[in-house]
Design brief:
Chain lengths: ~190, ~300
């Protein structure tokens, strides 16, 4: 394998893995999904300019794989859930929350209380993110990383308008949950 | 899709981005990278393990930053008579059976002026060798301190507390205690022992005494650049203490400002004084494994530096 491809894998892996974990709330499943996505992409590496387009393709692939995984799980858990319907519901504006909170310890703080506060804040952010429907979570995650609405829409496979609504609703929900911690009072 | 998207202007999205990027940095990716690359390589070519040294270096650098931040005071010798006398008087005042409340503020050189997060409020109550630190941020409350037996305790929830006996406290935690407890032997005595002390001229005898401490050349340095103590002209109590230390990038000044003095309330310096029945206390004798688990959630990777002894 060319070194450039190996370097590309290493440089994009933190983003892809973080994104998959945010969507699935399950590190083990996230690693499996990401590994599969890389495998599929690298199998066709000759057809792509990975350093230029690879991250976009990868995140799109991760989004679809996460939705597929959640869809399969829901189909297994619910006799009523049709795979297609569930898949659409994950990105619909009315989809319900899923996932559980995941405590993320802070590793960079310097004092016991700084570490504790940062850790609690991280936990609150994770808990608030976990309450979001998967589509909103994906949209706000990408928006927070600075991706534009068209890029968000392309990555999660929806329209520009729908992406805007997903980001808006996710942001509103997060502000309600985190406002008191970030800005001192609910806004 | 741009490879390095711009930083979002929305404060909430910026906080979220920092959180996401922190997670990206800290998550272990080497095993997954190794699996991905091994799967993609021809079978004859052995898979190369993903480099871990940079991550290890990052963690090491972080640990050094913690040490630099916590090992603040190494203020060097050479007292000038009057200034040294004033510092001695401040030491004596700190030992009186009253409790003093200090507001703690940290200013970091180079911190963004438009920082979107409201800073947490830190108040330190000291009474001799005892202290407690009350931290609040929005509805979040966290209290920790040290009791008269030298045990350090933590409370984030009034139903659950953690206690660490003196021989379980690692050096990092002990130094953090010395700082937040304004431990006389460490802060003021170090000032006298290792710093060149100078007192600012006063306009009147009612004005506070301002003592400046600069490390002496060749003296032991633990990260302090300077200290300025403002002492009450009558009681010699520390009204304000500003400690400037070397941070990872630039300097950070921690300022303690006296905001209250009152008769000591002994119970507030004990763990149980912050718990509500029914509560659980995790200590060396009660589920130490669970205690480490809770501390790890609060303190992250620093837990092992702040605890001594075997991992339960």
């Amino acid at each position: 394998m060319p070194d450039a491809i190996a370097d590309w894998v290493r440089s994009t892996l933190p983003r892809a893995l973080g994104y998959a974990k945010a969507l699935l709330r399950d590190p083990v499943s996230a690693e499996d999904v990401v590994q599969d996505c890389y495998a599929r992409l690298l199998a066709r590496a000759a057809h792509y300019d990975l350093p230029r387009d690879g991250l976009k393709l990868l995140l799109r692939s991760v989004t679809n794989a996460c939705i597929d995984l959640r869809t399969r799980e829901r189909a297994l858990l619910s006799l009523d859930a049709g795979a297609d319907g569930a898949s659409r519901a994950l990105l619909s504006l009315d989809a319900g929350a899923d996932g559980a909170s995941l405590a993320v310890p802070d590793r960079g703080a310097t004092d016991p209380h700084d570490a504790a506060v940062a850790s609690e804040l991280a936990t609150r952010i994770e808990a608030a993110m976990a309450k979001l429907p998967l589509g909103q979570r994906a949209a706000i995650h990408l928006a927070a990383l600075g991706y534009t609405l068209p890029e968000v829409a392309a990555t999660i496979g929806t329209t520009h308008g729908n992406a805007r609504v997903l980001v808006h609703r996710a942001r509103k929900a997060l502000e309600a949950e985190l406002g008191p911690f970030l800005f001192g009072s609910s806004s | 899709m741009s490879t390095v998207p711009d930083r979002p202007a929305d404060p909430l999205l910026r906080v979220l981005r920092e959180h996401i990027e922190k997670q990206e940095r800290e998550q272990p990716t080497a095993p997954v990278a190794a699996r991905v690359l091994a799967e993609a390589q021809p079978k004859s070519e052995p898979a190369r393990p993903a480099p871990r040294k940079w991550r290890a270096l990052g963690i090491g650098t972080g640990a050094l930053a913690v040490v630099a931040a916590v090992l603040l005071f190494a203020l060097l010798p050479a007292p000038e008579a009057r200034a040294e006398q004033a510092v001695r008087a401040a030491e004596a005042a700190l030992k009186l059976p009253v409790e003093r409340c200090y507001l703690v503020e940290v200013q970091r050189e180079g911190a963004p002026a438009d920082e979107p997060i409201s800073p947490r409020t830190v108040r330190v109550w000291t009474a001799g060798d005892r202290f407690r630190v009350e931290v609040s941020r929005g509805p979040l409350r966290f209290v920790w301190g040290r009791d008269t037996d030298g045990a350090v305790w933590f409370v984030a929830n009034p139903a659950r507390g953690i206690r660490l006996a003196p021989d379980e406290q690692g050096p990092g935690l002990q130094l953090a205690c010395d700082l937040y407890g304004l431990h006389t032997e460490t802060v003021l005595a170090e000032m006298r022992a290792h710093c060149k002390l100078k007192e600012d001229p006063r306009a009147s005898s009612a004005a506070p005494r301002v003592i400046r401490a600069e490390p002496r050349i060749g003296a032991r340095l633990l990260g302090f650049r300077s200290a300025v103590a403002e002492l009450d002209p009558e009681t010699s109590a520390i009204r304000k203490l500003a400690l400037t230390r070397t941070a990872l990038a630039g300097t950070a000044t921690t300022t303690f400002t006296l905001i209250d003095t009152r008769p000591m309330d002994e119970v507030r310096y004990k763990l149980e004084g912050h718990l509500i029945e029914p509560y659980q206390v995790f200590d060396r004798d009660t589920d130490p494994g669970r205690r480490r688990e809770i501390l790890a959630r609060w303190l992250g990777a620093q837990t092992d530096r702040w605890l001594t002894g075997p991992k339960q």
